[in-house]
Design brief:
Elements lengths: L1 E9 L4 H14 L3 E8 L7 E9 L12 E6 L12 E10 L13 E5 L1 H7 L6 H13 L4 H11 L8 H14 L14
Parallel strand pairs: 1-4, 4-5, 5-6
Antiparallel strand pairs: 1-3, 2-3
Helix pairs in contact: 1-3, 1-4, 2-3, 3-5, 4-5
């Protein structure tokens, strides 16, 4: 079985580190992974997307997932680049601090998380992407929360280790924001 996650947001929101963290967590849990980052020429303020495929066996190498299972939406600015690529009845986790209008997806299960507000509450003002990632992991069970925390700790560069504890608080706040396994990624998953 394979599950695809389409990430979208604006450069500087943590979309790329979130996608790499989820990919690393899935690999650490023994799954197969393909990750394709996509972003514009600017580091901050421009489009930043990623496509992650996670499977329990060998993956088909496709350049673009058509009919993806889920989406991680930090900002509505580039939602139009992701929405048409979602399959039927997708699971969509959105940053309700910025995504305030309807997504226009019939049959979607949409989970809203005020990621920026929660990040501020746990004193991780730059951790909104990790809040949303924690929420995504908890509600889907694509990977476990502990695997997300461990992957984040592997990926944060040495010159940013002062952010490890705040990032972990952000991930856990997100995981606590949504009901565990309410939209399970894997058959037979139980809360």
């Amino acid at each position: 079985m394979e599950r695809e996650v389409l990430f979208t947001g604006v450069g500087g929101q943590g979309v790329q580190i979130a996608s790499r963290t989820l990919a690393t967590a899935a690999m650490d849990e023994g799954r197969q992974v393909m990750l394709v980052p996509r972003y514009g020429g600017g580091m901050r303020g421009g489009m930043t997307n990623a496509e992650l495929t996670v499977g329990d066996g060998p993956l088909r190498a496709l350049p673009v997932a058509a009919g993806a299972w889920s989406a991680f939406v930090m900002d509505p600015s580039y939602w139009y680049t992701v929405a048409p690529r979602l399959g039927r009845h997708p699971v969509v986790v959105v940053n309700a601090s910025l995504v305030t209008g309807p997504l226009g997806l019939d049959g979607a299960t949409v989970w809203e998380v005020p990621a920026a507000s929660l990040a501020a509450e746990v004193q991780s003002p730059m951790g909104a992407g990790f809040v949303l990632l924690g929420a995504f992991a908890a509600v889907t069970g694509l990977v476990g929360t502990e695997a997300v925390v461990a992957a984040m700790r592997q990926l944060v560069p040495a010159y940013r280790t002062q952010h490890l504890e705040a990032n972990e608080r952000a991930i856990r706040a997100g995981a606590d924001a949504l009901p565990a396994l309410a939209s399970p990624a894997w058959a037979g998953a139980a809360a």
